[in-house]
Amino acid sequence: MPDKSNFTPDEWKLLLESVMMAGIAVSAAEPSGLWGLLKESFAEGSALMTAKLDPGADALIKAVVADFETAEGRRTARDGLKEKLTGSKPAEIKAKCIETLRQAGAVVDAKAPGDAAAFKGWLRQISQHVAEASKEGGFLGIGGVRVSEAEKATLNEISSALKLAA
Predict the structure, then answer these.
(1) Rounded to whole angstroms, how far apart are CA atoms 143 and 33?
(2) CA nearest 12: which of 27, 1, 2?
(3) Which of 67, 106, 139, 155 stands the most exposed, by the fewest C-beta atoms within 10 Å?
(4) DSSP result, the chain
(5) Are 53 and 101 in contact (CB under 8 A)?
(6) pLDDT, tens digit, 9 for 90 and up, residues 131-144
(7) What would the pLDDT profile of 49-60 be if each residue is shown by its tens digit?
């Protein structure tokens, strides 16, 4: 049963970052304005809560969620995001997120192969949940689509980075 002790501090930081990057990649693909961004942020937070409350959730997912419940875990994730994304142009943010997800996928494949499929699937699920959180296009919620073409393309990139079927 893998947990924080199975990973180096840098690898664990990467796993924490990957949870946040899964949602940021989709948000960066098709910015939704203030309300859309709030809905997408809430969607990411609710994915953490869902995993916490799911008695059947994978052990590695539970360990990551538990670390997000600590000030140290949140600080580690936040500092990692700042380090990777500060100064990035909007077009670069998505690419950096995808690369972080690719690296996190490789780490769990190597260090926790029994939990890798569940963890990577969870990251992909977070991305999907964020993509569906806010309609794209339209006006004041009228019209638009649930998942834009740019978001669909990003979801495919995320699946590819994580070596999951699209």
Answers:
(1) 15
(2) 2
(3) 139
(4) ---GGGS-HHHHHHHHHHHHHHHHHHHHHS--HHHHHHHHHHHHHHHHHHHHH-TTS-HHHHHHHHHHTSHHHHHHHHHHHHHHHTT--HHHHHHHHHHHHHHHHHHHHHH-HHHHHHHHHHHHHHHHHHHTSS-BSSBTTBS-BSS-HHHHHHHHHHHHHTT---
(5) no
(6) 887 766 555 555 56
(7) 888 889 889 999
